[in-house]
Amino acid sequence: MNLQDLTIVVITFSRQRFIDRQVAYWKDSGAKLLILDGSAKAHPNSGVWNLTSNMSYIHSPTTYRDRHLMAADLVATKYAILLNDDEFLLNPGISQCVELLESNLLVDCVSGRAINFFYKNGEVYGQRIYKSFSNMDDCIPPGVERMREFWNDPDGYVRHYTIFSVMRQTVFANLIKQTFATEHSNPYAYEIRMHLLTPLQYKSVLINELVWLRSGENDPVSIKGFDRSIRFSTWYLDPSNVSEIKTMLDDITECVKEDIDLYEVELRDEILGQLNKYVLADSQRYIGMSREVSPSITRRMVTQFKSASRRIIVTRLPNSVRHKLTHNSTTLIEAAEEWRANGVGVDSAEVKKLLQLIMNFHRSK
């Protein structure tokens, strides 16, 4: 399927080699590639890229939040999806997401199955992640009940990630503007906001197809004003952040109150109750760890390495050290085949294409 109706939005900072890799993958797909780069200097190829019909590169050394808000107004195609600069969306899987949106006007966001990958000693390793992700009852309309169900995943977070899903353009623009309306001192607050706002207003669906390759090649970008070293639950429970959390709750309530048949105070209490439930469970799960633990991006990966023979708190370690402890991990190809054995659709040719792209990228350093 031609992806001319889809825009891939990449918000990046100081990883310009990874931008080159994105361009190499998407250049012949038909999809639009929108890159918002906050690096100190513009990418040297930016002028050439902006002469290409399906690419738009914007050098904007502003904040992470500002660049998302810019993206909300720049997407002009029917569909859009956010993508981290070092990660991948498999073209066949992403086409199926678009096809579902085309065929079912009642669905607003579509995502798929995922693998976490990293490169070490000439090999690309992979691990199936978010294995418990699932769909909700289709009969539950957007609103408070759908929010409760969406946050009812066995692993303690949400049923699937909508922040990295294919959305209708109007949904994308609305959710991005609502999510980043207020500046937060904890970056994970934005993800939490979107995962509250989405089920309160929209229907999201998970397809049983391999779509997303999450990268373990880099530690998450953490810069002044955007500190990823502190978990959301740690930040939320810090008394010094009470005023900011109140603003966050007020914002979310204001965004959705017109569409939900509840008094405003009741709606706010429902949202607060859901947040408190999540934070309590999350803080208990990581009790005894330092404040600076790895973010949710690796949370489910970590569990796989907590065997009796490997009782090490790998969540405290940077990716470079963590990978040395996981040398027995499956390869990317093996992880994809594990998904296939569990009934997930996998395009083996596309996985091999990406494997070669990743290998070439690291060998060319």
Account of the protein in words:
There is one protein chain. 42% of the residues lie in helices and 16% in strands. The protein has 365 residues and is α/β, with parallel strands linked by helices.
Terminal CA distance reads 33 Å
Instruction: Note the main sheet.
Output: 9 strands, mixed
Structural class: alpha/beta
- State Rg: 20 Å
Count of extended strands: 9
Query: What is the H/E order?
Result: EHEHEHEEHEEHEHHEHHHHHHH
Strand content: 15-25%
Name the assembly state: single chain
Question: What spatial form do the alpha-carbon principal axes imply?
Answer: globular
Helix-residue proportion = 40-55%
Number of helices: 14
* Mean pLDDT across every amino acid position: 89
**Unreliable stretches covering 5 or more consecutive residues:** 291-318, 320-327
Question: Strands, helices and their partners?
Answer:
Blueprint: E1 6-12, H1 16-26, E2 32-37, H2 46-49, E3 55-59, H3 64-74, E4 79-83, E5 88-89, H4 91-103, E6 109-120, E7 123-129, H5 144-150, E8 166-168, H6 169-179, H7 188-201, E9 204-215, H8 232-237, H9 242-256, H10 264-285, H11 299-304, H12 319-324, H13 332-341, H14 348-363
Parallel strand pairs: 1-2, 1-4, 2-3, 6-9
Antiparallel strand pairs: 4-8, 5-9, 6-7, 6-8
